[in-house]
Structure formats: C-alpha cells, structure tokens
Amino acid sequence: MTPERKPVTLPRLHEMHRSGDKIAMLTCYDAAFAGLLDVAGVDVMLIGDSLGNVLQGRGSTAPVSLEDMVYHTTCVRRGAKAAWVVADLPFDSYHVSKEAAWKSSAALVKAGAHMVKLEGGGWTPETVRFITERGIPVCAHLGFTPQTVTSLGGFRVQGRDEASAARIKRETQELIDAGAAMLLYEMVPAALAAEITAASPVPVIGIGAGVGCSGQVLVLHDMLDVTQGRKPRFVKNFMEGMPSVRAAIERYVAEVKAGSFPVNEIHGF
Ligand code: KIV
Fold first, then answer.
1. What are the record keywords, sorted (predicted)?
2. What is the position in ligand 1's atom list of the atom closest to the CA of 217?
3. 3-state SS, residue 178
4. 268 lies in some domain
C-alpha cells in the first residue's frame, strides 16, 4: 500500500523553492489521473486550458470556457489527495475587469482549486493584486502565452533579444510586487529563466525554460506520448521503455527532483 502523503501547501512550495528542492508539476484533467499523479509523488497538478487541445481536439486554448475549467477542476480535486491544485483562468474570463477576474477565480476555487493561473504581463498586475488581496493565490504565466499565440506571431521562444528579456524581467517584478505567489515561464531561454529564478522570492516553474527553474511542468498527454504528431522540443517521452503509466510518471518526478530533466542542450533554448 502507498503511504499517505502530507498535503502540499503554498508555504511548503515556497520552502522548496528556497531550499532548492525541485517541484514536480504536471497537467491533469480528471479524477483517475489525479489519483495516479498523487501516488506517483507529483507536487502540483495544473488543470490547464491545454485541455482545449488535448481533450477537446481544438487548435487553440481560446475556445475553452470557464464552465469547462470548473468541470475539470471538480473532477481533478476529487482524485487529488495531496497535491497542490492550480486551475487556469481561461481566455476572456479575466480580461474585462478585475471584478470579472475575481468572479472567475472564485468559481475555480469553489470547484476545488487552491490557486488560479493567468497569463501575465502588460495589464495583469492590477488584476493579480485584486485577486490576491481577496484571498486567492495567483500563479502568473509569462514568456510564451498560448492564449495570445496570434499576437505573438506563432509558437515562438520569448525573451531571446535584450529588449524582450528586459520586458519579461520588468513584468516579473511587477507581478511579484502585485503579490503573485508562483511564476511559470514557457519557452524562454534557460539562462534568462535561471537568472529570474535565482532572484525570485516565489517558486518559478518552467516549461521549455531550462533546468534552472524551481520546478518543471509538462502537458500530461505529451510526456506520456499520447499526443500525436510533432511535439515541442522541450517535451520528453517518459513512457519510452516503461512498463506502466504510473512508472512513467514516477520517472518524470524522479528526473525533475534529481535535476536530470530537462537537459538544457536537448530540451532547452
Ligand atoms: O494549459 C496548460 O497546460 C499550461 C501549461 C502549458 C503550463 O498552461
């Protein structure tokens, strides 16, 4: 029998960041996988709006509704016993006003989320402050932000040149000052993410952002090789050579904790 794990809390995640104890995070969309991720030792589960791509077969995350996110958050929370549960605020659920952002965040918390994630930068620090001051912890997603893929000109690494690296650093500081309790960087150069992590008072999770972050996240269906077609360079197939899905997830957790995934030269930019 698997021994019961102590629930992962926000202070524990902050302590892990300070002590260099790596955080293993995966996306999750249902109760069955939540149970499996929990026993495999995953620290943080993200109900990502990537469910639009991986579950609904859409070409982008933009059509995902708040109702979709509430439904999947409810399912995950029924299966998750120990992990910290983060739910994405979907496109158009936090953009119009701070009050709308609060209502959307509250709906996700009522469904079982411990924290909400929004795609940060630009105008969002004020929204982060409003939600945080009212008692919901916020994770800010920077770098490549899938909800605005069209205005970013496609799936491009962000922060490669001096001006865009400086913008990401400035936006990071604004979000930290606004109370963001966790940061997530997607597709930024490993050196930039490592520099931000070293200076950050809050945990920094990376996806395609190198091994220097406080922790890593991948889309579950990508790392289990369920997703068909070409996958981003930062994805590793953890199912390869493994006897079960549980073993593949345990291998992911072990490699993240050991700092052996990702390898900057293979999975990084
Ligand atoms: O929606 C999602 O799965 C995400 C990850 C790419 C971090 O935001």
1. Cytoplasm, Magnesium, Metal-binding, Pantothenate biosynthesis, Transferase
2. 7
3. coil
4. no
Q: CA nearest 239: which of 224, 260, 254? A: 224
Residue 116: phi and psi, rounded to 5, are -110, 155
CA 219 to centroid of ligand 1, rounded, Å: 7
Q: Is the pTM of this model over 0.90?
A: yes
If one counts every other C-beta atom within 10 angstroms of the C-beta of residue 235, the result is 18
Cα distance between the two ends of the chain: 41
- pLDDT for the residue numbered 18: 98
Count how many domains the chain has. 1
The rounded Å distance from CA 88 to ligand 1 centre is 8
pLDDT in the model for residue 1: 59
* Domain boundaries, position 137: 10-258
Which parts are annotated binding residues?
49-50, 88, 117, 119
Residue indicated by tokens 């469904």: 111
Computed on alpha carbons and rounded to an integer, the radius of gyration of the chain in Å comes to 17
For 105-114, what is each residue's pLDDT tens digit?
999 999 999 9
Count the residues in the chain.
269
Give me the residues of the chain with pLDDT under 50, please. none
